[in-house]
C-alpha cells in the first residue's frame, strides 16, 4: 500500500517537474527509466582546500554539507591534487586517468611552439586529442559536463560552458517563440530568484570594488571584475544547477558540474577572505538542490559525490613586493649571458579571473598576447616565459656555455624566486633533477623533505610529482616556484591574492566528501588522488560491491548487530534493488545482520537469490531459512556475518490457532520461521536467533512460547550470551514483548542516553533482545533519505560489548 501511494506521488511530481518540461520542450534525449541502474553526479567545488572547508563547516557557511556528514553518512576525506595543482591536470586524471596532462594552466605547446592557456578552445582540444588520451576510456561517456575544460567522452551538445562545445546553445536557438515563452513561464520563480541574487551580488561587487580601490588596486581592473564576478558566482552556478537537474530528469548515467565561485573570489581577495567564504553559502545551496533532485529521481539510483580539485594559497603578488614583473626581473638578472634575453611580462601581469568571463562570451575584455611574433618563416624555437600563478616556466634560454646551476642561482639570488628546478640534461627524461634555493643547491628527491617542510601534508608525493613534471614535453627548461618551506609568504607571479598551480601545502590539499559505503582506495593510505576517484566512479557505475565490511576495521571488543526487514528489496518508490539494501547495510558496517522478508528465486523479484546476492555484495557469509518454499521459490529470513559462524538450527514456528488470524489478511497464512547461528567474537561464543513473527496476537504468543522453549532459547546448546532479534510485529507494551523481557532485555530500553525510536511508521515493531551479560553501548535507527526509500522498515543497529571468556586474550 505504501509503495503504491509513493509511486503515485512520484508520477504526479514528475508530470509537473520543471526539469522534465525543459527536457521535453528542447527535445533533449533521455536514457529511459532504469530505476535499478546506478547513476553518478560529480560536484566539484573549484579551489576549496580541505582546511578551508573545515573552517566553512565550523562557521555555518555550508550547512547542507554539514548535514550530509551528520545525518546522511558521508565521510570527509583528504585528497592530494597532485602537481601541478590546476583544474586541467586534475580533470585529465579524473576523466582519463592521465597524470600531469599539462605542466601548468598556461604553457608553451610543444606541437605549435606557441604559448597557450587551457581556456583557449584550440589548446584544450589539442591536449585532449593527444594519443595518450585516446588510449583511455573517458569517464563521462554517455553523460554531461558543466564548466569542464575537456569533453571527456560526452556527446556533442552535452558539454556546457566548455571551450570545446556549445552545450544546449543550438537547441535553444532552434526553439520557437512559443517554446521559449513556455520555458520562461515554467521557470519564472527560478528567474526571479536568480535576478534577486544578481542584484545582491552586484551590490556586494560594488562594495568590493570600492574597497579594492581604497587598498590601491587598479580602478579599471576592479571595475571590469564586477560583471565577471556576477557571471561566475551567480549565473554560472544557477545555469549549471538548472542544467544538472534537467540531466537528472533525463536519466543520464553520469553528470559532472564544476562550481567556480569560490575559486574566483579566492584569486581576487584570497582563500581566507570573507568574500570568498560568502560565496560558499550559495554553492552549498546549489549542492543541496542537485542532491535533492538526484534522490527524487525515478530514472536511476543516483549517488552524489562532492570534491575539490585543489586548494589555494594566500599569496602576495611578486610584482607588488619587488615593483617589477618577473619578466623584467629575469631580463635584468640574465643580462650577462652571451645572448641576453628580453622577456615580456606576458601573463605575469594578470590573473586567471578575467579569463573566466570568456566562457560566457565576454571577448571584449582585455586579452594580452603573450607570445612574440616571429619574423618571416623562422623555425627558431622562441624564448618564452609563462607565469600564470605560483609556477613560472622559462623556455628555450640560450645559455652559451653557462652552467644551468649558475643560471638557477642567479634567478634565486637576484630575481628573488624562492625555488628553481631544472634537469641536468633536459634531453634525457631520466636525467637528475637539481635546483637552487636561498640556502644553496638542492637535489631531488634527496632534499625534498627540507624543501617541503614538516607541515606539508604530502611531501613525498609532491616531490615525486615535481620531479616528473620537469620532464614533461610542455614544461620549461627552468621551473620557478613561488613557495618552498623557508618562505613565510608564498608568492604568485600573477596579480592575485590567492593562487594555485604549484606545490604548496594548501593548494595540493583538496577534499572528497563521499558516502561511507564507497571504499577508500587503500587502507594504508589516508588520502585520495583524482585517479582513485575515477576508479571508484567506474566501479560504482559498473555496479560493483559497495564495501567489504570487515576491511579497515581493527580488532575491537564492540560488536555491531543490525536487524532489518528489507521488504523483498523493494523500496517505497517501487524500485527493486538489492544493491540499494546492500548500500544501507554497508554504510553502518555491522558485524552481524539479521534480515527478514528475503526472496530467493521468486518470479516477482526477477528470480534473483537475494540472500546470496546481498552476501556477495557485502563479502559476508550467509545462512538462510525459508519460511515459505514453493517449488523453486523461497521466502524467508537470513543471518549475514563476516565472523566465524556455525548454523545450529533453523525451522518453522507454530502458526495461529485454528480459525484465528485469517479473516482480514491473507498474509496471516504465511509460515513463520527462525534461524539460529552461533558466532565467535574475540574468543566468546554468542547465540544469535533471527525471526519474523506473525500478524495476529494469538499467533505471536504461540511463537514467543516456542522461541523461549526447549527447541530454541532453553535448548541446552543455547548457552552463554544470547541475542534474539528480528521483526516481531509487536509493540514494546504488548504481551509478547513483555513475556520476552522476562528472560531477555530490550536493547533500546538499555542504551544509555537513548530515546527508543520506531522502525515502521514511527512505531517499534523491530527489536533486539539481549541476555543479561551483554552491555549496550549505542543504538541507532537511521532515518536518512536512503533508509526511508530502500524499504518500508528502518534498520535497527545496536553496538554491544560482550564479556570475554576466561583465559581468552583481549584485543588491543
From TrEMBL:
UniProt keyword annotations, A-Z: Endonuclease, Hydrolase, Nuclease
Molecular-function annotations in GO: endonuclease activity
Transmembrane annotation, as ranges: none
Pfam families, sorted: Exo_endo_phos, Phosphodiest
Ranges for domain Endonuclease/exonuclease/phosphatase: 562-793
Name of the protein in question: Endonuclease/exonuclease/phosphatase family protein
Organism name: Microbulbifer echini
Amino acid at each position: 500500500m505504501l509503495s503504491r501511494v509513493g509511486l503515485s506521488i512520484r508520477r504526479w511530481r514528475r508530470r509537473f517537474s520543471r526539469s522534465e518540461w525543459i527536457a521535453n520542450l528542447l527535445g533533449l534525449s533521455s536514457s529511459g527509466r532504469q530505476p535499478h541502474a546506478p547513476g553518478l553526479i560529480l560536484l566539484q567545488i573549484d579551489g576549496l582546500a580541505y582546511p578551508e572547508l573545515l573552517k566553512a563547516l565550523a562557521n555555518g557557511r555550508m550547512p547542507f554539507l554539514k548535514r550530509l556528514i551528520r545525518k546522511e553518512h558521508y565521510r570527509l576525506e583528504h585528497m592530494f591534487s597532485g602537481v601541478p595543482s590546476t583544474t586541467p591536470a586534475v580533470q585529465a586524471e579524473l576523466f582519463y586517468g592521465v597524470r600531469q596532462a599539462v605542466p601548468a594552466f598556461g604553457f608553451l605547446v610543444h606541437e605549435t611552439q606557441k604559448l597557450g592557456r587551457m581556456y583557449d578552445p584550440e589548446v584544450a582540444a589539442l591536449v585532449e586529442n593527444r594519443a595518450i588520451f585516446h588510449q583511455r576510456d573517458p569517464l563521462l561517456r554517455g553523460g554531461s559536463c558543466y564548466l569542464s575544460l575537456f569533453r571527456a567522452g560526452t556527446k556533442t551538445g552535452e558539454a556546457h560552458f566548455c571551450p570545446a562545445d556549445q552545450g544546449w546553445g543550438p537547441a535553444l536557438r532552434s526553439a520557437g517563440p512559443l517554446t521559449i515563452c513556455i520555458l520562461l513561464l515554467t521557470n519564472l520563480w527560478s528567474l526571479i530568484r536568480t535576478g534577486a541574487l544578481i542584484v545582491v551580488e552586484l551590490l556586494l561587487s560594488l562594495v568590493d570594488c570600492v574597497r579594492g580601490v581604497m587598498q590601491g588596486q587598479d580602478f579599471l581592473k576592479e571595475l571590469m571584475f564586477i560583471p565577471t564576478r556576477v557571471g561566475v558566482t551567480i549565473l554560472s552556478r544557477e545555469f549549471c544547477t538548472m542544467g544538472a537537474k534537467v540531466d537528472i530528469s533525463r536519466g543520464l548515467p553520469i553528470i559532472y558540474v564544476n562550481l567556480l565561485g569560490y575559486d574566483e573570489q579566492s584569486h581576487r581577495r584570497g582563500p581566507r577572505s570573507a568574500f570568498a567564504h560568502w560565496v560558499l553559502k550559495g554553492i552549498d545551496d546549489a549542492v543541496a538542490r542537485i542532491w535533492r533532485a538526484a534522490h527524487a529521481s525515478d530514472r536511476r539510483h543516483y549517488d552524489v559525490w562532492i570534491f575539490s580539485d585543489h586548494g589555494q594559497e594566500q599569496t602576495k603578488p611578486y610584482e607588488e613586493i619587488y615593483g617589477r614583473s618577473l619578466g623584467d626581473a629575469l631580463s635584468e638578472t640574465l643580462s650577462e649571458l652571451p645572448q641576453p634575453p628580453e622577456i615580456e611580462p606576458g601573463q605575469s601581469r594578470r590573473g586567471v579571473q578575467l579569463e573566466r568571463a570568456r566562457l560566457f562570451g565576454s571577448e571584449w575584455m582585455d586579452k594580452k598576447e603573450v607570445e612574440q611574433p616571429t619574423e618571416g618563416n623562422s623555425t627558431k624555437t622562441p624564448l618564452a616565459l609563462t607565469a600564470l600563478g605560483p609556477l613560472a616556466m622559462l623556455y628555450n634560454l640560450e645559455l652559451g656555455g653557462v652552467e644551468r646551476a649558475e643560471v638557477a642561482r642567479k634567478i634565486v639570488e637576484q630575481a628573488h624566486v624562492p625555488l628553481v628546478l631544472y634537469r641536468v640534461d633536459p634531453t634525457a627524461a631520466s636525467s637528475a633533477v637539481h635546483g637552487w634555493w636561498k640556502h644553496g643547491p638542492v637535489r631531488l628527491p634527496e632534499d625534498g623533505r627540507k624543501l617541503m617542510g614538516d607541515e606539508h601534508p604530502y611531501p613525498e608525493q609532491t616531490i615525486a610529482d615535481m620531479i616528473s613534471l620537469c620532464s614533461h614535453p610542455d614544461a620549461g627548461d627552468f621551473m620557478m616556484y613561488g613557495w618552498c618551506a623557508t618562505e613565510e609568504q608564498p608568492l604568485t607571479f600573477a596579480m592575485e591574492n590567492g593562487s594555485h598551480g604549484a606545490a604548496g601545502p594548501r593548494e595540493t590539499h583538496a577534499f572528497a566528501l563521499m558516502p561511507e559505503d564507497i571504499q577508500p582506495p587503500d587502507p594504508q593510505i589516508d588520502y585520495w588522488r583524482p585517479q582513485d576517484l575515477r576508479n571508484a566512479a567506474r566501479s560504482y557505475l559498473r555496479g560493483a560491491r559497495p564495501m567489504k565490511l570487515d576491511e579497515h576495521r581493527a580488532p575491537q571488543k564492540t560488536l555491531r548487530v543490525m536487524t532489518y526487514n528489507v521488504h523483498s528489496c523493494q523500496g517505497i518508490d517501487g524500485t527493486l534493488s538489492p544493491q540499494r539494501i546492500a548500500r544501507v547495510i554497508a554504510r553502518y558496517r555491522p558485524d552481524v545482520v539479521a534480515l527478514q522478508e528475503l526472496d530467493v528465486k521468486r518470479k516477482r523479484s526477477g528470480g534473483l537469490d537475494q540472500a546470496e546476492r546481498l552476501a556477495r555484495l557485502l563479502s559476508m557469509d550467509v545462512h538462510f531459512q525459508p519460511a515459505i518454499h514453493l517449488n523453486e521459490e523461497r521466502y524467508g529470513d537470513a543471518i549475514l556475518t563476516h565472523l566465524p559462524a556455525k548454523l545450529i538450527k533453523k525451522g518453522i514456528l507454530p502458526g495461529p490457532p485454528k480459525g484465528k488470524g485469517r479473516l482480514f489478511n491473507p498474509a496471516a497464512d504465511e509460515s513463520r520461521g527462525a534461524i539460529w547461528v552461533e558466532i565467535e567474537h574475540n574468543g566468546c561464543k554468542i547465540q544469535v536467533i533471527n525471526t519474523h513473527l506473525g500478524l495476529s496476537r494469538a499467533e505471536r504468543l504461540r511463537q514467543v512460547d516456542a522461541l523461549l522453549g526447549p527447541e530454541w532459547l532453553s535448548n541446552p546448546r543455547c548457552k552463554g550470551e544470547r541475542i534474539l532479534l528480528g521483526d516481531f510485529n509487536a509493540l514494546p507494551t504488548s504481551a509478547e514483548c513483555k513475556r520476552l523481557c522476562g528472560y531477555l532485555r530490550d536493547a533500546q530500553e538499555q542504551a544509555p542516553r537513548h530515546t527508543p525510536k520506531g522502525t515502521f511508521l514511527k512505531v517499534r515493531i523491530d527489536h533486539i533482545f539481549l541476555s543479561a551479560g551483554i552491555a549496550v553501548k549505542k543504538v541507532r535507527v537511521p532515518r536518512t533519505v536512503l533508509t526511508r526509500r530502500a524499504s518500508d522498515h528502518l534498520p535497527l543497529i545496536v553496538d554491544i560489548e560482550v564479556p570475554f571468556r576466561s583465559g581468552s586474550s583481549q584485543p588491543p
